Amino acid sequence: MTSPAAAAGRPRLSPRKRAQRIRWVQYALLVAVVIVLVSVADFPQIQKVFFRGDLIHDALTQGLGRAILNTVIYALGAFVLGLVIGTVLALMRLSSVGPYRWLAGIYIEFFRGLPAIVVLIAFGLLPLAFPGMEIPFGTYGTVWSALGIVAAAYMAETIRAGIQAVPKGQVEAARSLGMPAGAATRKIVLPQAFRIVTPPLTNELILVVKDSSLAYIIGLSSTGFDLTKYGRDMASTNANLTPLVVAGLCYLLITLPLTFLVRRMERKAAKAR
């Protein structure tokens, strides 16, 4: 039985040609949308609101370097703390001791369910709840602690998956040679697990960098301001969004290289398989 297209004398398109035609239609729609946006955009107003030259100059020369440095310090400190706590939690989740597994599970589910901004506010208000209490390193310690314990909840599951990916035969071989369980974990399991989970942990670092933008909520000092606080203050002072655009571009300068690094590591890992 012949198809209607064949009966009408029209050649039937192959799947490849049909996919090509659909792709060209999508390209045409994209070009049409771009043309419409360009035709209706008020470029002088956009430049005035988002890309004012004098404010770009002011943003680049009035403390931007300090803001970038503080953002990096906040992110790295929180990441290191989260990595340490996350490793302990991952080991607790895999422990044969029931209470360890339960405590780690409660911690992970609790802090994965809380927004980072809520934890930051809570840590910022701790001195009010406990008079005389001081978190070490002041504002830095507050941001590190709040973001670190949240990041640890996510890293713990990543590290646990990496540990479980290490072949059990290697641990059994080490134990058969008389190596204690703790030494086998430190010297054999964890090094391999971290090699496996390096790409996803780098993704976690990117998320911590972005979460550090919430630090402004606890009220940063003039020496502790991050990129978001810096951009917000300048934008409010000048009633213009250009400083925030500059701050956003600086975040991209930090996170995009990490994103490319993750993709490169993932490609290498895929080839190794």
TrEMBL record:
Belongs to the binding-protein-dependent transport system permease family. It is found in: Cell membrane. The keyword Transport applies. PANTHER family: GLUTAMATE_ASPARTATE IMPORT PERMEASE PROTEIN GLTK, MEMBRANE COMPONENT OF AMINO ACID ABC TRANSPORTER. It comes from the Bacteria. The keyword Cell division does not apply. This is ABC transporter permease. Residues 68-262 form the ABC transmembrane type-1 domain. InterPro entries: AA_ABC_transptr_permease_3TM, ArtM/GltK/GlnP/TcyL/YhdX-like, MetI-like, MetI-like_sf. Keywords: Cell membrane, Membrane, Transmembrane, Transmembrane helix, Transport. GO terms for cellular component: ATP-binding cassette (ABC) transporter complex. It is a multi-pass membrane protein. Pfam families: BPD_transp_1. The chain crosses the membrane at residues 24-47, 67-92, 113-131, 137-156, 205-224, 244-263. Gene3D superfamilies: MetI-like. One of its GO terms (molecular function) is transmembrane transporter activity. GO terms for biological process: amino acid transport.
